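Subject: for your reference before the review

Hello V.,

The reviewers asked for a structural picture of the protein, and I figured it would be easier to keep everything in one thread rather than splitting it across files. Below is the amino acid sequence we used in the manuscript, unchanged from the supplementary table.
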Amino acid sequence: MENKKARLFGTLLLLASFAVASLFSFWITNPSILDTDPSTYIIVVMLMLLLFIVFSYKERLEFKYSKRNILWALLVFLLYVVILSVLRVSLSYAFISYRLDGLIFPVLIASFILLIYGFEGIRKLWPILVYAAFASPLILMPILSLNGAFANLNAALVYWFVKLAGVSASKAGLTISSAAGSSITISTTCVSIGTFIAFILFLIPLAYLYDGKAANKLYWVLIGVLLILVLNLFRMLLVTFIWAYYGIGSAVNTFHLFAGQLIFYAAIVAMILITGRFGLWLGRRTKTKKTDRKKREQKLDRNWHLIAILCIIMVSATLFLSYDYLNAVYAPPLLFSGNRISPATHQQIFLDLAGSAGNVVSLGITPNGDLFSIRNASDLNNSIFIIANATAKALPGRVNVAYNPEEETHSYLLRNGITITAQMAESGNNTLVVNYFSVPYNVSGSWVSVNYLVFKKFNGDSSCKTSAPGSASGYFESYLYNFIFPGNLSNGGIICESYSIALGGNK
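And here is what came back from the structure prediction:
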């Protein structure tokens, strides 16, 4: 096999390995960029990441067998498994909510690159590793949180141009009203900041594909950003003027229907057409050196099949660990509100508790949250108590209660990605079994995170006897997490009601 064919085989092996290994991450990703959730821009990164890997063929990397590369690749892959397990168990549902599976893509891809190309591959393909991290919105959360402010800025610009054109109108927040009493709103869905981020991240792999100076590529991307901003402003102005002169029906039912997609595609075509203006080109302009010709004639090591087998093993392990993504709870981090324990939230909590065992009694409010009792509120030996409080964050939290821990904590990752942490505790003369976990709720369109503390008096053996609602991968990750952060729960464990509550709810 000539070196040219070996390079092609290496590129395809890298592409296939990552594409299959990230299968379940792709599966749970919304295929559309939603105007209501700018964090959905990540679908562009995931799709373009595959093309980015295809474009790496231009680097002329040599695919060869090396025991040293195999050792480093396996070590990096082991690091990926540890990071994945620790993050999933410690962060509970926030792992999928913030799409941290994408944040650790660089580690997974690096293990495949090391296996196939060695450290020379890392040196040349580092742009792919950096780009891959943006498959999680966590890095851009500060920018995504400016979605409302960005809409306000665009509404102000549109209003300024409308007044400049002599149209009689007034502005209140994001709404522009005419003298006749009709109005039009430049909402966050009209100028979702996620769409602009998606456009930028679409251009970056294309800039990598083209040859030319790095500075020219940067200027090309910046011009693309300016172009999409100007085109979108033009779109909003045109829709607004149609509204001002022909009414809201004409504005909504004509140009507004297809304008957004039109300008996105038009901007892409325009950017490709002007690459030559920035000194960018496809293909190499320099003549091939004799040493390059000689290099192309080199044969692929006869042990190449061992690398392919190791890739298959690593891919299989990744699929095993990521299978539960399909069942995982997802709570959009940007859509959480300031709604804490509202009547609707309280009712939802009460319904979940009732579904877990039967008789539920609300005992009122404590400094730590709302207190509930399941079964018999007057019998400590047979009652289970729950303290619940809510926060407006897409993060798991804990209810702070004064007691003396008796044992180290032990965590269990459920199939839906929610982690229950158990421990024994001393409170007065009582030994208690305590469970912690957090559950996201969508209450009347507003998301909240409810933190639960479930406890009951210890009676010798307090672990739940029913089969745990976990999975093989969840058990493995929990075991690895508890091995790294050791605990001891020989006599206590998960309360059955904790399982039921963590698996229920309007999530």
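For the response letter, the relevant points are probably these. DSSP finds 20 helices and eleven strands in the chain. Residues 214-246 form the longest helix (33 residues).

Happy to draft the paragraph if you're swamped.

O.
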